[in-house]
Amino acid sequence: MRALSVSFFLFLLRHFGYSQAITTIPAFPTADQEVTIIFDVSRAQDARARGLLGKTDDVYLWSGAGTTDTGNAFEYQPTGQTDFSKPYEPGKMSPLGNNRWQIKLVPRQYFKVPADKPIRRLGVLLKSGNGQAQTEDFFIRIYDSRLSVARLAPTEKNFFVDPNQNLLVRATASQRANLSLLLDNTPVATAANQDSLRFTLNSGTKPGQRRTVIFRAQTATETAADTFYFTVRPQSPVAPLPAGLRDGINYQTANRATLVLFAPQKSFVYLIGEFNNWSPSAQYLMNRTPDGNRYWLELNNLPAGQEVAYQYLVDGTIAVADPYAETILDPNNDRFITATTYPNLKAYPAGASGIVSVLQTNQTPYTWKVPNFRRPDPKNMVVYELLVRDFVGARTYKTVADSIPYLKRLGINAIELMPIMEFSGNDSWGYNPVFYFAPDKAYGTKNDLKAFIDKCHENGIAVILDMVLNQADYEFPYVRLYWDGSRPAANNPFFNLQATHPFSVFFDFNHESPATQAYVERVNRFWLDEYKFDGYRFDLSKGFTQKNTGNDVGAWSAYDAGRVAIWKRIYNQIRSVDPTAYVILEHFADNTEERELADYGMLFWGNLNDPYRTLAKGFTANPNWISYKQRGWQNPNVVGYLESHDEERLVYDVRQNGRVAGSYNTRNLPTALDRAKLAATFFLPVPGPKLLWQFGELGYDVSINENGRTGTKPIRWEYLQDPERRKLFRVYQELITLKMRQPAFQTTDFTLDFDQVVKRITLNHPSMTVFIIGNFDGQMQATQAGFPKTGKWYDYFTGQETEVTNTQTALSLQPGEFHLYTTEKLPAPEAGLVPYSGSLTGTITGLEPVPDGILLYPNPTAETALLEFENTYIGPVELQVGSPGGQVLRSQTVQKTASLLRQPISLQQLPRGLYWLKIQQGHKQAVRKIVKW
């Protein structure tokens, strides 16, 4: 969590001094008298409080009252305070300026606490009206008539001072009393019959000495006291780092481990934790290496196999968890993780504050069932991108693992997990990482994650991790350790003061810094070695640059030699650890840069969402950039996609904004799903790896902006009960099967004819030729077929055979109509997966259109129209009436015995709307529209 406007001492964690984010008037508030509560939002520590900074309105109190000193502080809540996502008007705060807010209330009245119940403390926080910005929880002590004391200065509970420093102490009592101030149990100041005391202490000169200060008030019948501690800044012992140790936790025996922290430009570091009651002590002052860059300490007598929590207290001002920790505990978020999700989660340790890291010696290693997985060929991957949170209701690795049979049935051979390393909060897309070596506990245990990956490998499915190394959130220790109050400090060895590029989120890594390079190398090695991930998809890879382009998107996307060098270095490091690991970049840079890196071996996300969505809606677009050949690349390294986590959902957009042409309406669900089949048929067969977004194969039609862009989305497994959605699934399944099993779909000899509204794909291979044709328009299109060659062709989705004697025969394609032809007969899928199953069957020997002069009247008609045309043909004429979706509704064959044919066409019992009439005489055909009103 981050707060962006805090001064030096405000970084003290609460167990080293509760910052003055809240003050009250009076200083000793009671249950039945009015109290003014004043918040200074700039002193809040939660990352979400940043959204409150600078506000002049829309800030609300969310609060409760508790009847015990340490129990539930929200036991009683004001009437009507029920929905955190909405403003609570009685709690509306009044601005005081400079990020300070106040509210006046009488606790017993405001919280409706019964008169016979005491109020011991209030739980309070500030939030925006919609709840998206908020402070952490604060607690206000409520006093009774007993003697009480409060310390006004210093405000910290436990802190460091310089040798021989003067320290002002100010304290007050709730009534007149005999006051005294004790330093290490020795009185240094007294005041008789007073309600306040002011005195200046001298810290002393002994480095590392921890001193105790007690303020005491006494009357004839009562005594009250307050205690705080300070430590004279120590001098770190200097000692070289023992051989073989690296940053982070180094396990050595069942009860011994050495901790190493990289912290250049820092003066001293204490190890604090459960072993010393979270207080700095001489034996836990860490050694400093001669170069001043690292601190290290060996821990002995650790309990074998037990989890031990710890932090680093750096320069006496900030305590952070280990940036290399594999498990962390978060007091703000872990309480919402259930035992079902994470059994036996270690309780947050008493006396700690903020995120803490955990070490555990003598761990039982996970036993891999598939220790040497053979990865799918990257040239023919079909990757399924999913977000654990929005894929299964339980939001756990275990339940995602239960869905592997479904994904295997679909046919995919790789899964891409959206980021799963510890991120801020429990509910996120994951692009706000804070601990890069720790799987987020919100999804389960680390062994649950390993078991999921293992099960994927058992089923032939690779697992790719979405890796976020462009940015980190505020709670990342190396953001907090080098911070200037509103952004990373100039001396931060990892981060830029501000991002060098547009679209920056959170805090921007400097990838030319040696510190960042070393950390990135460790992170990438870790997940490959420890979890057996099969590679990475790197988020915002175009941001890995020190070339400052400000907000100029064009300049940012231009060829960047420095960025190319960074990525080649990272790629080489990864491949030195794992020679077959996938390296996929979300780059979207100039093609010359992507081509160079693709030819070097990297894969690239290929975003074709916009053109395919446009086509699916019935409008004009050209998605030929899905082809690596179109880009001039040597290898098929474009991971093309119709949808990803970051794009609007195709079927949703079609249903909202698709084309309506007469009765052909892409917005109704069956037609929208047919349009999705059409898009998939011109997407998956294009040679090269492909990516699907979760539930796209079922026509997910909930907007990306539902509940906010990154907010939780409804999970739609019930789609499987819908026959029409199951048909879309089967089309995806069949196309993926062809891609995986038929060499022609992996060919390097292919052409894409995407310029016109009727589009074609030709795949040439010694095993067979594949020809795909489809009409993306919202109305019927008459066109020349463009078959690659004459001979027998088989319509894959119907199994029907067609003899082609003229490759340029004339065809009439209904809106959305498509066909996938092969020169070899393949087992046909079940009937009815695609519309227009009878449109192009039979013998095609150079079909010519029926001569013009066709009359169809009246049109529109109420029941029956009359068809008339005249030519020299004598013989059978086939007449078909069909729906705009391509289904044949009525069919008849009439005998033409004279030059003139006059035939009634009945629309009786059909609903009002647009239909088509196909006229087939011999090898000639024509299609006409007919409207029933």
Automatic annotation (TrEMBL):
- SUPFAM superfamilies, sorted: (Trans)glycosidases, E set domains
Please provide the record's keywords in A-Z order: Signal
Using the record, list the residue span of the signal peptide; answer none if the entry has no such feature. 1-21
Keyword Signal carried by entry: yes
CDD domains associated with the record: AmyAc_4
SMART domains on file: Aamy
Q: Can you give the residue ranges of the Glycosyl hydrolase family 13 catalytic domain?
A: 385-725
One Pfam family of this protein, by short name? Por_Secre_tail
Family note: Belongs to the glycosyl hydrolase 13 family.
The protein here is known as Glycosyl hydrolase family 13 catalytic domain-containing protein
Source organism (scientific name): Nibrella viscosa
